[in-house]
């Protein structure tokens, strides 16, 4: 298995991506890594690494890419000027069959736009989405999507997100029949915006009329707390909402960690207690910061692309690579293509006349230019 | 000062509201409370209370209201059948000048709809909003609005929210020049939905062209993590987004508390360490659960109405009453009326032709029927 890495573009530079790549090589003995970036910078980084990591150096090849797409770059500009960049290099390796997946910590909007252009989408999916798994009460996890690739979505996009998220939970996490919910501001049928109510109706009908069902259990509406409660395996929403929820959760976790630290420093004055508390705190810290320690998947592309958090350290980047390894192992794009490409869609006529689903063209018209979004710095 | 309490409607029943009211009386020596609810139930509750609270009983009067609006009731039904309910009784006391403010832990949508009908709105405000303060890094707080009273807002509503939130921060928290931000999925000008971009333009122009400014500093876009980072005193967004963010934060805090507890139980096996950790944990628990321990204000009404969290215990309900006390002390509605009612609005003509602000009618048409939303169970 070979994974292409965009070594540039994360907030911490090639230090995090190079070290993270070697850590991932240590974890996966069948893995090879192809690193895209300025050769001199990457070689210097490799030179300076501790000896214990260099044993895996033989499974890492460098692929020179002189240019970098910055986090601040506008998507349109990034796409136009992508030639020679580490991001395009890594994606093109997947396109050309030289790599099985690609991982980047760079500009999310540019990554999505370039990946769409170079890899294309799964048949039947108009809008790829970004998804990550957050930890839930009881020790499980919940896939949240979309995280910012699509703002102002229509009902049919929410339905697509539901189906993609369910396939993800089934294929990657072995959840036999994923419970899928729509995020709403109340659980009663009368609440929410038209696109959400429409998607609700469509999912109820679709799950019912599909011969084998959709392969998931649609459980209706959940409010924001449902993302973390363990009530669902997949929660679906518009990209603006998902992005705000994920980032706010990240901000809250950061704040709580800081306060936890303060509380301990203020109240556990004896050295022995602080020493005992430290390992527990460290363990907790990693659990409390799911966002930084997970990759996000670009779902619906004809290829595997994982976005690592822009602020991820080496360990976080290694986790993102592991997510890509898992998606390759399970052949996620084939599952998506098989289940979504051939799927019989519920006919628009059985829905209300005002259905978003009837107005397919207007939605697709916007698709040529993906939203300039950046769910993870 | 007299505050009218809707004793019914919270998840924990009159136990929490009665005890919380007596706790609030203990905190505020100039406070009188008028409790609306079924007389027999309330008297039974008062009888069963511990002696130490009964000293304040003389400043509490009961107002019989035989009926209750339930959490599950649809707003339209609740409004139609409000006669004789504890919620309408409490609101009507404010309307008739018998009370200075009203506090309820009941159905938020019904509370907003009834309060609008009975009290009216501040001149110049088309859509009242719901706002609460969340704690921020560094020990400050940030007002987030709207939390679910308005979904699918236009730019001019976001501008109104910005101005109301700023007045709240200035009047209630003594923040001299509140920093106000718009929630968006990126900080670049090209990102987000049209209403948010339009509001951004309008706020920039409004703050500039207003003779004395708006009395706040508009700092542009923030992403979700900005709600907790301390970067802003007020963060403004559509009610669907704010509701999802607030509820998700609540869910995350709950999950983290549970994990924190587990971590301690698993790793601090000696009794003495656990005993030492307990007070720190309890203190933290209250800080980590800002949502349950704060009231939310219904902003833009011609009267003070505070929503306590539906799941609030007595202490949480007492905090909500304290918030109402503070708003009465500072005469919040007069500040809103003075600053918003007479304000010169930026002219639509200086904005783009497609401005939401130009299409005032379509926005107002929906206002007769407030959204059936319920930001806090």
From TrEMBL, chains A, B:
The principal location of this protein is cytoplasm
InterPro entries referenced in this protein's UniProt entry, alphabetically: FA_synthesis (IPR003664), Phospholipid_synth_PlsX-like (IPR012281)
What are the recorded Gene Ontology BP terms?
fatty acid biosynthetic process; phospholipid biosynthetic process
What's its EC? Answer: 2.3.1.274
Write the record's keywords in alphabetical order, separated by commas.
Answer: Acyltransferase, Cytoplasm, Lipid biosynthesis, Lipid metabolism, Phospholipid biosynthesis, Phospholipid metabolism, Transferase
Give Gene Ontology CC terms: cytoplasm
Q: Region Disordered: start and end of each range?
A: 347-377
Pathway assignment: Lipid metabolism; phospholipid metabolism
User: What SUPFAM superfamilies does the entry give?
Assistant: Isocitrate/Isopropylmalate dehydrogenase-like
Q: Pfam families given for it?
A: FA_synthesis
Q: Which GO terms describe its molecular function?
A: phosphate:acyl-[acyl carrier protein] acyltransferase activity
Q: Which Gene3D superfamilies match?
A: Isopropylmalate Dehydrogenase
* Keyword Isomerase on entry: no
Catalytically driven reaction(s)? a fatty acyl-[ACP] + phosphate = an acyl phosphate + holo-[ACP]
Q: Which top EC class is named for this enzyme in its record?
A: transferase
Q: What is annotated about its quaternary structure and interactions?
A: Homodimer. Probably interacts with PlsY.
What's the family?
Belongs to the PlsX family.
Q: Explain the purpose of this protein.
A: Catalyzes the reversible formation of acyl-phosphate (acyl-PO(4)) from acyl-[acyl-carrier-protein] (acyl-ACP). This enzyme utilizes acyl-ACP as fatty acyl donor, but not acyl-CoA.
Q: What is this protein called?
A: Phosphate acyltransferase
Q: Which organism is it from?
A: Chromohalobacter moromii
